[in-house]
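Q: Could you fold this chain for me?
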Amino acid sequence: MIQNIENVDKQFNAENQNNISQCDHVQLGGQAYYDEKKFFMFTPDDPVVGQVQKFRGLGMGQQMADGTFDFVRKPQRKPKSTLIKKLAHGRLSATIDGAIQLTLKVFKSEGLNIEETITKEAKEAFE
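A: Sure. Below is the predicted structure, expressed as structure tokens.
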């Protein structure tokens, strides 16, 4: 009987962990520390390793009217073009609407003649 309970407990924990890792929303209780708009640290009341996957991203954090802290991650913009060719100062891409896009970036500090560089890069892009 004890073995059956252990197996059920292991199975429940595995299913529960699986559901947590696939979830986009996790709610935890604990204490948060915030210092001079630079550092934020959260200490959960019941720490469980791996309960929330590590992530790195930009977002907005705010303290709600009821005292809770809410963090909403900004969605990453997906590229709307496909790289055709990489160039020394830019790229040649195909856009979703079927256009060909040439993007160049030349810094003044490089000391290059802008007109010659643009002409040279455009020729290289279509060779």
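A (continued): The chain is about 25% helix and 30% strand.
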